[in-house]
Specification:
Length: about 270
């Protein structure tokens, strides 16, 4: 494994399995923790574990004036952090290339999937809107950061409760009613499914950090609950045939059902308490 890692992996892949005992199309154990037990100071939070990969997402809501060119829209600001404590490969300091690329990917998923319509965040046209700061921090990195990040973001947003805000017509000031809170309107539920490509032909799902390093490419497919394709993220690497890509999309649609079921189950257990 240390001297010739690729040959070591190929021996397993020939038998249609992986060194950790999983089949090629099998995900690691996935768990999600939503709400107060994650971050008490956030307006919504969630902790997601995908095997050893652990990601926490906190959403903080603030009030701001809308931009002049989009007077009826609020803002969503995602930020992915890969601190040095989550893996040896990351360094302290300003966000590295991988963290920046992940933040951009999350921003694209929010935009393309229309999970939250920015008009829904507007309180008073041209005067006041919500800003949602979504901080996604990786606590333990063992591959497949994007799937865990999208999952944590969705779970945290479903947990957000915003107070009722009105504008006093006499004073023109905003008044916040903390006693009356409403959930965010989540219009779509995007779920990411990542694959690693081995030797340009073989696809394995939910790669570990070691598998990502040995792979000749990776691809992430994002779908919503209607089976609609929201995003295909393929940062270079070996090309995929149309048939292979279709395989990935089919698997992603199945994965979506599994993740949605898990989120619904956890939310139901919280609300029934």
């Amino acid at each position: 494994r240390t001297v010739e890692p690729l040959e070591y992996y190929r021996r397993f892949l020939k038998e249609n399995c992986r060194p950790d005992g999983r089949e090629l199309g099998e995900f690691r154990t996935t768990t999600v923790n939503i709400g107060k037990c994650s971050i008490t100071t956030a307006d919504g939070s969630a902790l997601v574990k995908l095997g050893n990969t652990t990601v926490i997402c906190g959403v903080k809501a603030e009030l701001a004036a809308p931009a002049a060119d989009s007077a009826n829209k609020g803002y969503i600001v995602p930020n992915v952090e890969l601190p040095s404590l989550c893996a040896e490969r990351f360094r302290s300091g300003p966000p590295g290339e991988e963290a920046q690329a992940a933040s951009q990917f999350i921003a694209d998923v929010i935009e393309n999937s229309q999970m939250i319509v920015k008009e829904d965040l507007c309180i008073a046209n041209g005067k006041l809107a919500w800003v949602l700061y979504c901080d996604i921090i990786c606590l333990d990195y063992d591959g497949n950061l994007l799937d865990a990040s999208v999952f944590a973001l969705l779970a945290a947003l479903k947990n957000v409760q915003l107070p009722l805000v009105t504008i006093n017509e006499e004073t023109g000031l905003s008044e916040v009613n903390l006693k009356q809170k409403n959930s965010l309107i989540i219009r779509k539920h995007p779920v990411a499914t990542s694959f690693a490509v081995f030797d340009d032909t073989l696809l394995i799902v939910d790669p570990t950090a070691e598998e990502e390093d040995l792979a000749t490419g990776t691809v992430t497919i994002v779908t919503d609950e209607e089976g609609r394709l929201c995003s295909v993220h393929k940062p270079g690497g070996s090309p995929l045939t149309g048939a292979k890509l279709q395989d990935c999309i089919t698997r992603a649609i199945t994965r979506h059902k599994e993740v949605k079921k898990l989120i619904d189950k956890v939310i139901k257990s919280i609300t029934s308490k």
